[in-house]
């Protein structure tokens, strides 16, 4: 049973794909609840309230997937998760509309003093002259970060007759044209906008993007909005510019520290605030919960996840096509690792035939994950395979070849150590299955499965018989046996498979036989 911890308030109805999941137990408790056995948790679902640090991950050795029921993953140490092979997924578009609408509502409220006027009337005042507002019509809205939310906001602003000027270094001219917005540098947006709103993720590049220096490049009387992440606008710098009258007002939904407690911005009447409500609608919460619950379930069912931060997305169709090669790649990596015990400094992979139509970089990661399994105590998978190789100084090369060796496809992997190298080649035959067709310079043909032994020996009469007799005497049943040789009387190999793995004594007895050069277990 997979243990799935829901550590933040996530919509119950949206969690139904996991509530109905027979192979999972859902635990709805805070991360620091003493009843939570962190070491047993397989999946963790969070919003922005739970901070997922490297220290926390250290305590969660079984964790395989972190799902963020929302967009921003700045509360998750994605690098630390990647290093451990933990997949991080989010729900990228489930709350876009709600957040764009909230930003718009904040902008309208700010320009028309709605929160202040509301409070005044409730205080039994009637101060119509104190709350003269400013129209949105004809004003220039500067949007920093023109992704999903920025784009939805732009559409709404245009309907209100606003001019939209955007800054986003990753926005193409074509996309800006399609969205009907003027695209410029940050300096241009700062200089031209009447209202500036940020919609970037919080990253080292965007932290403090709006600071004293950038604030001083804006028009006097500018308004600021932050419904993205606390920290993109330097809060103390903003408070200073509100205080000196340069900034006419600000609407803030998110804070560097949440909840913010006493805050220098709170003393200004022209600063309006909400407690991180951008995504807080029934619709958005249902959307994001459903998205991540489905993702986690798909992951545990061995299906591809769609919205991973640290894995490439793959459609179901592509996944079905790549699946047999994925399995074969892992098996090749594992065989290689078990046949070549020493440290390796290079792994090169050559793909040929039909497999080259697929995402071979994904298969390369699968080869590496098979190779590292049982070699290192970190769970290596497609998320952290390249990183694991890099950290161990192993160069990984991938190439495509037209030589298919007579098969419809082939995957050839060579591992190199200082004075030694070992090659394994496999193919996948439709309606037949995976086969290993080349092992360390020998042509062979066997099914990579179960408990096997790989023996290198001299091609002399009686060797195969002696191996069979010794095993027979010990009541060991040989399930399959394949032999290969380069030339008569030279070096040869045997690959045998058994119902149960051979024990150390049986291995030693075989190793001691005449004409046996080496013997290795291969367990797949
Ligand atoms: N207040 C709330 O409740 C919510 C806040 N958010 C925040 O809003 C952010 C944006 O969300 P989406 O639009 O869905 O993300 P997105 O990924 O679609 O858009 C982000 C945009 O920022 C741009 N960008 C990145 N670095 C930049 C830089 N240095 N300067 C200018 N632009 C830059 C990217 O090119 C991208 O177009 C999220 O990362 C999240 O932190 C999201 C949902 C709800
Ligand atoms: O999706 C996001 O990035 C948000 O900021 C929403 O945060 P929340 O899930 O409401 O804590």
From TrEMBL:
Q: What does this protein do?
A: Catalyzes the reversible oxidation of 3-phospho-D-glycerate to 3-phosphonooxypyruvate, the first step of the phosphorylated L-serine biosynthesis pathway. Also catalyzes the reversible oxidation of 2-hydroxyglutarate to 2-oxoglutarate.
Any idea which UniProt keywords this protein has?
Amino-acid biosynthesis, NAD, Oxidoreductase, Serine biosynthesis
| Catalytic EC class | oxidoreductase
Q: In which pathway does it act?
A: Amino-acid biosynthesis; L-serine biosynthesis; L-serine from 3-phospho-D-glycerate: step 1/3
Q: What is catalyzed by this enzyme?
A: (R)-2-hydroxyglutarate + NAD(+) = 2-oxoglutarate + NADH + H(+); (2R)-3-phosphoglycerate + NAD(+) = 3-phosphooxypyruvate + NADH + H(+)
Output the PROSITE patterns linked to this UniProt entry: ACT, D_2_HYDROXYACID_DH_1, D_2_HYDROXYACID_DH_2, D_2_HYDROXYACID_DH_3
- The EC code for this enzyme is 1.1.1.95
Is Nucleus found in the keyword set?
A: no
Establish whether keyword Manganese is in the entry. no
GO terms, molecular function? phosphoglycerate dehydrogenase activity
Q: What name does UniProt use for this protein?
A: D-3-phosphoglycerate dehydrogenase
Q: What organism is the protein native to?
A: Robertmurraya beringensis
What is stated as this protein's family in its record? Belongs to the D-isomer specific 2-hydroxyacid dehydrogenase family.
Q: Which residues form the ACT domain?
A: 452-524
Q: What InterPro entries does this protein's entry cite?
A: ACT-like_dom_sf (IPR045865), ACT_dom (IPR002912), ASB_dom_sf (IPR029009), D-2-hydroxyacid_DH (IPR050857), D-isomer_2_OHA_DH_cat_dom (IPR006139), D-isomer_DH_CS (IPR029753), D-isomer_DH_CS1 (IPR029752), D-isomer_DH_NAD-bd (IPR006140)
**Gene3D superfamilies in the record:** 3.30.70.260, D-3-phosphoglycerate dehydrogenase, domain 3, NAD(P)-binding Rossmann-like Domain
